[in-house]
Amino acid sequence: MEKTHFDLNFKNSLEIDINGGTDLDSDKANAKWAKLSRGINTITPSAADTTDATPYWDGEGFTDTEVTGKNITFAFSGHRVMGDPAQDYVASHFLDIGDKLRTLARWTDPVGNVVESVATLTSIVPFGGAANVKQTFSFTLALNGKPDYTPASTGEVTPPLNPQSTGVNGGVKLSGQ
User: Fold this and answer.
1) pLDDT, tens only, 7-43
2) Which of 64, 63, 119, 127 is nearest to 91 (CA)?
3) Which of 6, 57, 84, 130 is 20–30 Å from 109 (CA)?
């Protein structure tokens, strides 16, 4: 029987390209990855589904639901850490609109599966709160289009990424699903 266990959330690694790459194929090689972890105490992933619910005669009055699309987002919140490369990059885009809010994003799960995508920074809150507390910090990272998914090659847990890491994750070749 396989041993079951609970993984802790911090074992997920989420990074953004602080060079602001906007093309996964051509910009990934020159990406400067910065880990989103310092000061972050909550990350909430969401896959807002687009669904079609259609009743068919053979369903005898009940509907058949099919997921026809997804909008994948990661909502980050915590405290503002001045000097953290990832937070500084996000905060610097508070006043921007359009393509200036796009960058590359990478999520590595505890098993070593990797998801990469062009993403848009939305709902940026660079500071806030009462005068006598740590500044708050939050934003949402919205993936654009179908992300590239690469399953873990060995099934072993990938070592944690360096918060200041650059380049491609351990030379893992990424391909579409």
Assistant:
1) 899 999 999 999 999 999 999 999 999 999 999 999 9
2) 127
3) 84
pLDDT at position 153: 84
Q: Of 98, 89, 120, which is closest to residue 18 (Cα–Cα)?
A: 89
Q: Which amino acid is it at 5?
A: H
- Distance between CA atoms of residues 85 and 165, nearest Å: 11
Q: Which helix (H) or strand (E) holds 27?
A: helix 24-27
Cβ atoms 79, 41 nearer than 8 A: yes
Cα gap 34→16, rounded to integer Å: 6
Q: What CA–CA distance (Å, rounded) separates 57 from 62?
A: 9
Q: How many CB atoms lie within 10 A of CB 157?
A: 13
Residue 153 to residues 2, 96, 114, 160, Cα–Cα distance (Å): 20, 38, 10, 16
Residue linked to tokens 């953290």: 84
